[in-house]
Amino acid sequence: MLGKLIKHEFKATGRTMLPALGVFAVLAVVANVGYRFLSVSKNSVINAMLTLFIVLFFVAVAAAGLVTVVIMINRFYKNLLQNEGYLMLTLPVNIHQLMWSKLIVSLVWFVATAAVVVLIIVLTIVNFSHMELARLFAGLPTFTQLLELIRAAGFRTFRLIFVGLEFLALCITAGLCFCLHFYAAISIGHCFTNHKGLWSVLSYICISIVTSLCATKLTSLAPSSAEIEVLVGLMIAFEVVIGAAFYLISTHSLRRGLNLA
Amino acid sequence: MAIFECKSLTKRFGGKTALDSVDLVVEPGRIVGLLGPNGSGKTTLIKLANGLLTPTSGQILIGGQKPGPATKAMVSYLPDRDYLPGWMTSAQLLEFYGDFYADFSSENAAEMLSRLGIDSTMKIRQMSKGTREKVQLIMVMSRSASLYLLDEPIGGVDPASRDFILNTIIANYNPGASVVISTHLISDVEKVLDDVLFINEGRITLSKSVDEIRQDSGKSVDALFREVFKC
Known about the structure:
By secondary structure, chain A is an all-alpha fold.
């Protein structure tokens, strides 16, 4: 059933996400091409347009991230806590399958958005002239030099792979935690009879304060001489613990405290 | 075994008691009217049966089990509001219901939709309120469920649509199954009911068959309801 939920979640979100990512990519490409053609001009009007294109590019990047987050929040709120909840919460599935379908699909869209942003940035770099490209990279070490630097710092291949996997795990747990933070706050807000939106926002703020305090405490406890693997491992453990807490709060609220309007 | 059973079922919201020690049994093959004025606890009882609320105390059982994924596969539920995603077309709805409910008949649903002249590419949000309610009912009644829980299926629709809805229920429900229809529009549903439950202020005040009511009181269910719930 999880597979079916994921399929329908992709259908529901894809109808907004795919066009949004497409529009974002087109905007960014237009901005890039515009920049390349107009940057040679001395005309002040054209220069103003050039600035507009650059602004447009950054707006597109910000909008892509914002749309992804808004859809993640909106799907949880509308699909489970509003009228559509009568359909979704009476399907022959359990609450964990509903939660994971939303989490997995949100994570995939985060990755897709990040991939499009990276692609556009790469395109931007390619669009620069060779001169500019050379200037841009002049101060940076080459890939071979970078590898040598890493090896010199004591990283063997195995260790490098391990740290890479750790960073990947950190990205996944942080992404899940980011979603669950919103889910937990909204779920708590919806256990109140009135002002559910206000309680959700207040819950979000309170949870943020508590997690920040915990993170600060944890950072102060970590030994300053700790290896990077240990530090990243601690960060993953922290994300897993608070993520599990958010997950329990969300599922408990949906099961026990929910009263759909 | 009873398909739907409540034992001392109580639900409180803060200090307000919505259901107070409700005991009831619905046997298979019956069409039951859950009748009561607004705010009497009808929707709360149906939400509890669907696992959308949890009891404060007591038990609610569907086919002998507490509400959960297994009972949700047995129950076909029509909420008292627009609950289908507005962006979906009726064709997408057929696929959705077919994916999640093994007892859903896409053929029956498609046939009923085409009889009503509903375009399969039309989105739910583009439909009129009456058409949306009919589509919702078609989805619910195209399942071969053991228990149909219909919350106000004829509330807010015109008399012609009421006839369509009641005919759809009678023509499509699985004969071995039970149907619970919650409503306060008694005269319209009376003709299809086998049994009646009167509910008031969270308590079941009467549980009888329609024939018993007619024999004992010499009145129609509608007339008895008006007498019992007279303001």
